[in-house]
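User: Predict Paraquat-inducible protein A's structure from this.
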Amino acid sequence: PEAALFAFAALTLMIAVVLMFDPMLLWDLVDDLRAGRAPSAAPRREARR
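Assistant:
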């Protein structure tokens, strides 16, 4: 197979990873670290205002 096939597969994988990413987890982690708490393993789900 040509290089284009591998590039297409890599692009498809990268798009899938980006779509599965939940930025709220990153925000919760940063909030915990700034508050001096240990990062929690389970994500918090709070209602947005």
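The chain has a mean pLDDT of 84.
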